[in-house]
Design brief:
Layout (H helix, E strand, L loop, with lengths): L18 H30 L5 H22 L4 H18 L11 H10 L5 H9 L7 H11 L4 H12 L4 H21 L5 H6 L9 H9 L1 H11 L10 H15 L5 H18 L5 H46 L1
């Protein structure tokens, strides 16, 4: 009886619409259905532990992401920040997984040269581990920096939850910036596949470097670590730029823009902690960290540009509606 009416389908068309438009709408509806089915099958295969390799599972997840975007855009558009974040992450992960299969890498020398320049002849990762890390011994800083490293996987979602409930108009810009940073970084990852410090050490180009976080996590639960590593798939030559730092920078700017007291200082501290952690843990060079900050900045530039275009389009529609309504007002 009463209650909220069902949401309208934004893909509705009539016979008066042009044939190309009707064809496009039909294709979008097919994508919506196929995507949802693929997403459900990907979830089912994960729960049932079907023998899919990472590329097959990621392909299903990417199709599911397309369906999620289409469904949310047509039925629940206010929830687009969530769909953008989830779908963007999934599509990025699929493309990132294939980044080391282009045959363009790995590159070692240029980034080693940059870091030796920063470290006055020494590689900062090597120096930090020689001063503060003992192989085979888990020190407090190892645990602390590993926690900072792992926070990358939850910080974007916690940030979106916070914005959603306390500053909802800022949720969509954050989601756009997050996805923009991912794909801006992906361009460089695919174009210049770069090896991290631990791989350079394995190649004998620098003194030994431990993968501190991976060794610590494997020591806590080696079976879960190995299964997750194999299932998710890896791209070990995706060091430049640091996506960890890019996303951390996007989160930090979102905190600063929230206007909450102390948020700017907290964001700066988080970016600094992530940068130091990644260099110490052997996962990234200082050059990767600097490039990650730049990538996060590009993500926000993309978001702000898209936001302005959306606002201008909305103002144009309102202006046209006002012009069309003038004769009706005069007649009344």
């Amino acid at each position: 009886m009463g209650g909220r009416p069902p949401p309208a389908d934004a893909l509705a068309v009539t016979r008066q619409d042009s044939a190309p438009l009707r064809l496009l709408v039909a294709l979008l509806r097919i994508m919506r259905v196929v995507g949802v089915v693929a997403g459900l099958f990907a979830t089912w295969s994960l729960l049932k532990r079907l023998p899919l390799d990472p590329s097959q599972h990621n392909a299903l997840v990417m199709l599911g992401s397309a369906g999620l975007l289409a469904a949310v855009w047509t039925f629940r558009r206010p929830y687009m920040p969530w769909a953008t974040l989830l779908a963007g992450t999934n599509v990025y992960s699929y493309l990132w997984f294939w980044g080391d299969r282009t045959g363009l890498g790995p590159h070692f020398d240029y980034v080693l040269g940059l870091d030796r320049l920063v470290g006055l002849g020494q590689v900062p990762t090597v120096w930090l581990q020689q001063q503060f890390h003992s192989p085979g011994v888990t020190a407090p800083q190892d645990i602390l920096f590993t926690v900072v490293y792992l926070s990358f996987f939850v910080a974007p979602y916690l940030t979106l939850v916070t914005l959603w409930f306390h500053a909802r108009p800022k949720a969509a810009p954050f989601a756009r910036a997050f996805v923009g940073a991912l794909f801006a970084g992906l361009v460089l990852i695919i174009a210049v596949p770069t090896a991290p410090p631990w791989m350079a050490a394995e190649a004998g180009l620098i003194p030994p470097v431990s993968r501190v976080a991976h060794e610590f996590i494997a020591g806590v639960n080696s079976s879960v670590y190995q299964e997750t590593y194999e299932f998710a798939g890896v791209n070990d030559i995706a060091a430049m730029p640091s996506i960890h730092v890019a996303v951390t920078f996007v989160v930090a700017v979102a905190l600063a823009r929230s206007g909450r007291r102390g948020a700017r200082a907290a964001g700066i501290a988080y970016v600094a902690a992530m940068g130091v952690a990644l260099v110490y843990l052997g996962e990234h060079y200082v050059a990767d960290v600097v490039a990650g900050v730049a990538t996060g900045w590009v993500g926000w530039r993309i978001s702000d540009h898209l936001g302005r275009r959306t606002s201008e389009g909305a103002r144009g529609v309102l202006a046209e509606s006002a012009v069309e309504a003038e004769p009706l007002a005069e007649a009344a």
